[in-house]
Design goal:
Length: about 140
Amino acid sequence: MWLSDTQKIGVGLTAFGSALIGLGVILFFDAGLIAIGNILFLAGMSMIIGPKKTFFFFTRRDKLRGSIAFFVGFLLVLVKWSILGIVVEAFGFLNLFGDFFPVAINFLRSLPIVGRLLNLPVIRQVVDRMGGYPSQYPV
């Protein structure tokens, strides 16, 4: 595979952190699980792309609003206001990674079973709207 060992560990930390965040939400917004998941997610991300690129990603001018919201949500989770913290974090996450959704949707459409499901007429309209695709292309 083309990933280094550090990046492979970062992918594992990011996946485990995301799983802990999801588990914390399922278990009635358990602040401890969500906080550990956030720490693992950030640590994994910095191991995947490197600490310097992670810092520059979060401090870019066009990503500043999302970064502030993400870290304020993280702090709210740390002070045990987990429901409000997750909502603010989700807003920040969508602002930070919203540009990536069309790429992810195109990748999912190339998969055999998931692609057929995403290309069903009703689901396609919803996914296109979520992915930021225009409803009609100008000709």
